[in-house]
Amino acid sequence: MASPSVTQATRRRQRSTRLTISVSLLALAALAVTGTALSGSWSAVVVAAALAVLCGTASTRISYTELCDTRRDAAADRATQAQDYLILAQARSTEHEVFVRSIEGRIAEREQSLHELEEALGSAQKRAATATRKKNSETRRAASLTLQVESSESRAAESLLRSHELEQELDTLRSELDSVTSAWRAADSLRKHA
User: Fold this and answer.
1) How many domains does one find in the chain?
2) Residue 165 lies in a domain
3) Cβ distance 36 to 44 under 8 Å?
4) Residue 5 has what DSSP assignment?
């Protein structure tokens, strides 16, 4: 607990002094009335009663003044505390605003990073889709070329076979031609000699 301030210690001392004086006045009045009542003098009792009323009035006034001062001091303390709390609340509010701006900045940075990553991911996906399409196109083209190569090889084999057959047929025709030409020459030479 915080130690009491100088004004609190001073106020306590004043309160104690005022209340002591007030109680002392009431005790003096009680003693005066009691003393005069024991003396048996009616006029002394009346004077003592009047003195008791004056002491009671003074005691009440001192207590009332103490009460008003206490309330005023308490109100001043509450006003000071309220002012201190207002300053503290403003400081906290400022700190909170700074914190909120800091967090909003971080969130904005994260959102920017996330946006950039999303764009990069979209770009990478587009490149991957393009590469996949190219690969599929090249795969289809390679398959088509493989079929064409196989077809060409098959036709080349057929052409070779046909070429070989034609060569054999040509050889056959040449040998027939040679034999017909020889026969014709022989027949022509026979005719010339005949």
Assistant:
1) 1
2) no
3) yes
4) P
